[in-house]
Amino acid sequence: MQAVASMSVRVRPAAGLMLAVGCVLALAAVSLFIGVADMPLGDLIRGDGGAQAIQLLLVSRIPRTVALLLSGMSMGVAALIMQMLFRNRFVEPTTTGTVEAASLGLLVVALLAPGLPIFYKMVVASSFALGTTFLFLRLVSKIPTGSSLVVPLLGLMFGGVINAVTTFFAYRYDLLQSLATWTNGDFSGVLRGRYELLFIAGGLAVLSYLAADRFTVAGLGESFTRNLGLNYGRIVALGLAIVSMVSAAAVVTAGTVPFLGLIVANLVSLAVGDNLRRALPWVAVSGAGFLLACDIIGRLVRFPYEIPVGTVAGVLGSGVFLFLLLRRRARFG
Amino acid sequence: MIEIHNLTKRYEEAAVVDNVSLTLPESGITAIVGPNGAGKSTLLSMMARLIAPTSGRVLVDGLDVQATPGAVLAKRLAILKQNNQVGMRLTVNELVAFGRFPHSGGRPTVEDKRHVDEAIAYLGLDDLRTRFLDELSGGQRQRAFVAMVLAQDTKYVLLDEPLNSLDMKHAAAMMKLLRRTADELTKSITVVIHDINFASIYADHVVAMRDGRVMLEGGAVDLMQETMLKDIYDTVVKVREVDGHRLGLHYL
Ligand SMILES: Nc1ncnc2c1ncn2[C@@H]1O[C@H](COP(=O)(O)OP(=O)(O)OP(=O)(O)O)[C@@H](O)[C@H]1O
Ligand SMILES: [Mg+2]
Q1: In sequence order, which residues have a C-beta less than 8 Å from that of residue A195 and are 6 or more positions away?
Q2: Which domains does chain B have, with CATH numbers?
Q3: Which is the closest atom of ligand 1 to the Cα of B82?
Q4: Using one digit for the tens of pLDDT, what is the confidence trace for A156-191?
Q5: Which ipTM was obtained for this model?
């Protein structure tokens, strides 16, 4: 009797998740067939002009769609992990200086070792991100806990200071244009050979599921974590490492999308709660779906021109965010 | 047995726990009482290795808490702190299940599920199982935390003011529950408590603290003396006998 009850409880959420995955795949399919260059499905199948269409698909369309999927999912996961470690609902890599630090790292590489392979650029960027985020976490734990909005406000200021330094040097050395592309997500330039590092971010997002319980416990606070016999410092280190590498991968490829992770993580929390075993897959899927949808909208609204995905996400995101602030206490299924 | 040897905690020279030595028994209820700022919570946190002492040692069944791996200690000793601000949306069931983590490592067995069910039933939370913590009242949340700690099923349980925000019915029920748990499962439960009358009725062993020092280590009867209470709390408390229990009247 009891076994049956717990079975049905376990099956239903999984079914919901499968449905969500289906929706995201459908969006991905749509995303493949939108673009300035015409690529009728018929051509692909029949074969006349097919070689060209396949070429387009392989070089540009598939990379773009895959990059969106990987970015969306890893940014959502990174935000959720950060929210557990900071014990604050309003943090994510763009509200804690993490992304700004990664950009600074990338700028340093661009100035000192411009020929470095992109993988090593990412390594440098993620170590900048890691150091800075760790510093910020220490800073936050020193200030008395007040309103939960203080932390992201402080983080935005902190990021602003780092960004000022970065901008100063970027200006001096004529790199302002590159700088802009690192933080404002834009997937129109994604081509084969220029986005593959995102697979590392996606892989980390998937791997973080193995530590889901640990992150949830860390979200209960240091005392609870120690009481349960877990090493709090080690969980924080692991989480920050994941967050930093995800942010760095985003910065060196298509750029980050501000607030995407924050919004997705909050929506999922409202719907299914904060048990990361359950929430992480949802955040990954919704993050990917949300980013794909924003990108598709950005490509359709002023066709054949494109609106950057960051702008669309910003507009949609602020709407969702308002809804969140108002609905915060409401209970979902 | 928990042995505390010359335990001291200083914050900027001021000793908030001052050279305390105590022995807490293998089973039964120990009540720690004393005025605000006496150092009760600090003592409890050091016993559970949540904060490091400035000097001194705590041994739990002979294991030094500072040197023993956290995972080993977590099967022997559990603590619930005084203020638990948890903003997370976990259901009562999920929270209590996390209490089994030291045993299950995240892969709950039938045995783990049984402990969770029992703890939830014990604290009268059956109807609230699927509710998120942020949708509970303060007292309901407090009971959920206690259920989590009980599900951990450790021989030693340290509770810092577990009666916090409980109403009369639930406060008495909680003490009865702790009494039953201590007796039936032979556990050693240490509670920090402000209501001396609960200590008088339910505790086997009382430790009274003031200014970081132990004023009394003895039975409930030793605590419930007007001169003793005056020394501890610096206020007049009349003690009367009602139905065989000594009760303090501090309202007068
Ligand atoms: N982190 C800290 N830094 C400095 N002083 C501290 C710190 N933590 C506690 N104290 C001081 O130590 C003393 C003992 O605090 P503790 O929390 O142990 O008291 P308590 O007996 O539990 O009091 P209450 O009944 O109010 O809970 C207090 O004077 C407190 O101000
Ligand atoms: Mg206290």
Answers
A1: A63, A64, A66, A67, A70, A253, A254
A2: 1-76+155-252 (3.40.50.300), 83-153 (no CATH)
A3: 27
A4: 999 999 999 999 999 998 888 888 777 777 788 777
A5: 0.93
Q: State the burial class of residue A164 (Cβ atoms within 10 Å of its Cβ: 0-12, 13-18, 19+).
A: exposed
What's the CA gap between B120 and B130, in Å, rounded?
A: 11
Measured by CA distance, the residue closest to atom 25 of ligand 1 is B36
Contact A267, A109 (CB under 8 A): no
| Nearest ligand, CA B14 | 1
CA of B213 to the centre of ligand 2 (A): 15
| Identity at A328, one-letter amino acid code | R
- Does any CB of chain B come closer than 8 Å to the CB of residue A95? no
Any atom of ligand 1 within 6 Å of the Cβ of B136: no
Strand partners, B5: B57
Which ligand has the minimum distance to the alpha carbon of residue B209?
1
CATH of domain A59-332: 1.10.3470.10
Rounded to two decimals, the pTM is: 0.90
All structural domains of chain A with their residue ranges: 59-332
Q: Where are the alpha helices (DSSP H) in chain A?
A: 2-32, 41-46, 50-56, 62-86, 98-112, 118-142, 150-172, 176-183, 198-207, 212-219, 222-227, 232-252, 260-272, 276-300, 309-327
- For chain B (252 residues), the mean pLDDT of every run of 10, in chain order, is 96 94 95 96 96 96 95 96 88 97 93 96 94 92 95 96 92 94 93 96 96 95 94 93 90 76
The distance of A274 to chain B (nearest Cα, Å) reads 5
| Pocket probe mutation, ligand 1, options B41, B80, B160, max atoms within 8 Å of Cβ | B41
CA distances from B150 to A331, B116, B134, B191 (A): 28, 9, 21, 13
Between chains, do A229 and B88 touch, taking CB under 8 Å as contact? Answer: no
